[in-house]
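Students often ask what a holo structure prediction actually looks like on paper. The answer is less mysterious than it sounds. You provide the chain, you provide the ligand, and the output is a string of discrete structure tokens encoding the 3D arrangement of the protein together with (2Z)-2-iminopentanedioic acid.
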Amino acid sequence: MDQVINNFLEEVKRRNAHEPEFMQAVTEVAQTVLPYIVTQEIYHGKNILMRMVEPERVVMFRVPWIDDQGEIQVNRGYRIEMNSAIGPYKGGLRFHESVNLSILKFLAFEQVFKNALTTLPMGGGKGGADFNPKGKSDGEVMRFCQSFMTELFRHIGPNRDIPAGDIGVGGREIGYMFGQYKRLKNEFTGVLTGKGISWGGSLIRPEATGYGAVYFAQNMLGTRGESFDGKSVVLSGSGNVAQYAAEKCIQLGAKVLTLSDSSGFIHDPEGIDTEKLAHVMYLKNVARKRIDEYVQKYPKASSHKGQKPWGIRCNIAMPCATQNEIDGQDAQTLIANGCYCISEGANMPATPEAIAQFHHHDILYAPGKASNAGGVAVSGLEMAQNSLRYNWTREEVDQRLQDIMQDIHQSCVTYGSEKGKINYEKGANIAGFVKVADAMLAQGVV
Ligand code: NDP
Ligand code: 2IT
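The corresponding structure tokens follow.
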């Protein structure tokens, strides 16, 4: 079996030599899916996984814009249309200085499996730009978004490709891009998700990724007869996903000890409560400041510049910032300190070495493509509401989100149970694969 996997990965690497994040995501899937394919005759001789690692289409484009000093800036924009076997391309846009083809291809590849797991009809895509929104004025962000959409609009559409937010893209950016799309096409359609409530958005979409990751962890804890009540939680990030993961943990009676950003983490031993979280939301979403300002208002908390929060003792850890933020050493530290449940809010936050530690120690470990699927799931519900020209209530959307997270958990159990344990990584990869691969086979050589 190792030989089959190595040969496959060698061939993928030959074509994608300089794309480490993409190779990491493909390797993780290949190691669980290829052994499954070997046992399933319908996939033999179809080269099906090799087809799935090749994007259907990649668009790269120039994004010129004018800054507040009147200088002309240029960034690189992308949209990876990875797979449309089960629905139109769907996935977020990331604006961050680190964005490159490798990172977006890894995200698009993960998205294909994740979207299949949601039970909704969405293919996978991802896009973005190497634009750094930090320190930019509203006017600069708007001009960038307008220029970005001036090219992207010709590639997307409500039945073709429906982008949404990701790192650096929230409600403000979606608004600017939606406005520009509407001017260019003279059409009011659900071409983006994460829209404002008064112009086609869905209730619970801002909350959905964070809430969903907590609901998924609840399902995992349930398999051991446990709950969030009274548990300590270490969270990374302080953006959209982390904020609402924290909110749901607090609602369920857990104690949230940390939050972070790219400058470091803050540790509040008394727990971040609802009022403190409201201040975090003000700091990050309105004032657009660094997380360490938290300690100015709450001096019993400490700030740890340039560090990650994984050294803080906890029961549950939820990485909600970015890829590869938990390495093998961090995983060992978490486990040694008593952490036994990891639910990924971010995409691919754990390195392969970290994941190996989680499996070795029988940690309840949910890979992002299962546990953070709540965001895109509610994006799918936003699309459904747009098609109906109708809005569901908060309670209705939240209930559907909870049902979907439970379904995803069940898919992981169905495909990932082994020796009385649940391997969520294997379960998520195989369940996602089966849905997309079967659709591709039915559609011929696509
Ligand atoms: P935001 O931009 O709202 O927040 C990102 C947070 O992560 C910020 O606190 C940011 O800090 C921190 N961060 C980003 N990059 C780094 C880095 N290189 N090192 C350290 N910290 C970093 O993004 P989201 O909350 O939307 O996204 C967080 C993660 O969740 C990403 O992996 C994303 O792909 C994933 N995700 C998002 C979904 C969504 O619906 N938004 C859905 C599913 C997954 P700083 O402000 O300093 O940059
Ligand atoms: O990684 C993700 O799932 C997202 N950034 C959300 C995608 C979406 O289309 O809502």
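The first helix runs from residue 2 to 15.
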